[in-house]
Amino acid sequence: MNLILLGAPGAGKGTQGALLAERLGIPKIATGDMLREALRAGTPLGTEAKRYMDAGELVPDQVILGMVRERLAEPDAAGGAIFDGFPRNVEQAKSLDDMLGGMGRGIDAVVYLDVDDETIVRRMSGRRTDPETGVVYHVEHNPPPAEVAGRVVQRDDDREETVRHRLEVYRRSTAPLVEHYRTVGVPVHTVDGDRAIEEVQREVLALLDGRPT
Ligand code: AP5
Q1: Beta bridge partners of 95
Q2: Which residue, 70, 90, 115, 187, could crosslink 193 as a Cys pair with Cβ 3.0–4.6 Å?
Q3: Is 13 annotated in the active site?
Q4: Quick check: is 49 in a domain?
């Protein structure tokens, strides 16, 4: 299965994607995580991406597409993938179609996680990440266990003004993908993402039930 998780920053794509990857046995391809990893590793790509990420702007398409093309060629992605944070605009969506088409594959479904802006701004201020494992927590909704709590960090782009700008960029560039996928005939499932993490996961799994994995 090739599945796209679509939604505003903080809608829960990473959280749901990690649960789905485990459940479906296919990798999550998260371009934001890959960029942060490149930044931690001090690669030129990571350094170039940082200024866009800190400003809440999209990283140029050619950087992202090269990264995704390489990741899709890895053996664990042969049976499909869950795309989190990619594609981010119609150009990226068309390139993904071409990449998958070249492998005899296509997008099976899009899950659109719907969450309103004010909930998102509140969520982001409570997000914490474990720098050792990359696991994402929330101080209220999904608190880190005691042995991890001392080392969790807040993302640089989770400051309120940057989050609000990321929401604008999302509305301008990424939200039109819902209509794009409907137009090209890919099933788009809208899920209310403003519920408990487990409830959202149950609904997503129920919607995907019966699709080939
Ligand atoms: P990226 O890392 O992709 O960020 P994003 O899309 O803005 O999404 P987030 O990771 O912020 O949120 P999420 O939806 O995964 O939510 P999460 O599950 O963590 O991108 C960062 C930057 O990289 C971009 O701004 C851009 O510069 C660049 N970039 C990345 N991909 C790109 C691309 N393709 N093209 C160009 N540039 C690109 O949840 C958020 C918080 O809420 C967590 O604390 C979580 O625990 C909590 N939470 C989750 N679900 C629930 C729930 N149901 N109830 C309560 N709390 C919840």
Answers
A1: none
A2: 115
A3: yes
A4: no
Is 106 inside a domain boundary?
yes
Q: How far apart are CA 140 and CA 43, in angstroms?
A: 34
| 81 occurs within a structural domain | yes
CA of 123 to the centre of ligand 1 (A): 10
Cα 58 to ligand 1 centre (Å): 13
CATH, residue 10: 3.40.50.300
Q: How far is CA 170 from CA 8, 22, 57, 112, 118, in A?
A: 6, 27, 9, 13, 15
Q: Which among 3, 23, 5, 211 is positioned nearest to 114, based on CA atoms?
A: 5
pTM given for the model: 0.94
Per the annotation, the verdict on 127 as an active-site residue is yes
Q: Count up the domains in the chain and report the number.
A: 1
pLDDT tens digits, 20-52:
999 999 999 999 999 999 999 999 999 999 999
